[in-house]
Design goal:
Helix content: over 70%
Number of strands: 0
Number of domains: 1
Number of helices: 6
Structural class: mainly alpha
Largest sheet: none
Radius of gyration: 18 Å
Length: 154
């Protein structure tokens, strides 16, 4: 692709690997994005300081720090790597719509991190019903992202 410099020549042979690693990273990230709010639902019902609450704190921290955050970073890095291969067509609107949804997913990830810290400090700013409703947001964002990436409707 003109104007992208030497990166195209260097990364183009790795396109299948970049795609595979990007998809694997997305799967790991989404597993956490779908599971963490469910943990919040149960944690919101646990008595602060109880053994159950302490168990949820550990589960949430490990999920967020050891799985979700590295997977999110990998998703972004491999996605950027894909753009550097020259296969991305920047004149298509679907791509920008997808990037807006991915930015929304990233923002939600950061919010989930804030809620992890709230629970770790035994703060309960929301009830279980709130987290049950929030649990649907990653699914909706994922549907939009996948449809845009696969169908490329516009």
């Amino acid at each position: 692709m003109p104007g992208t410099g030497g990166a195209v020549n260097l990364l183009a042979p790795y396109l299948p690997w970049l795609k595979a690693l990007h998809i694997l990273s997305v799967i790991a990230w989404m597993a956490g994005m779908l599971y963490l709010p469910r943990l919040f639902v149960y944690h919101a019902g646990a008595e602060p300081g109880s053994p159950m609450s302490e168990t949820f704190k550990t589960m949430e921290r490990r999920l967020y720090r050891a799985i979700m955050t590295p997977a999110m970073v990998a998703t972004w890095l491999f996605g950027i790597g894909l753009t550097l291969t020259g296969v991305v067509v920047w004149s298509t609107f679907w791509l920008y719509a997808k990037l807006v949804l991915v930015a929304g997913m990233t923002w939600l990830h950061v919010i989930f991190g804030r809620w992890c810290r709230d629970f770790a400090a035994d703060r309960r700013p929301h009830g279980a019903g709130f987290y049950r409703a929030i649990n649907e947001l990653p699914t909706l964002l994922l549907i939009g992202i996948v449809v845009l990436a696969v169908v490329k409707p516009f």
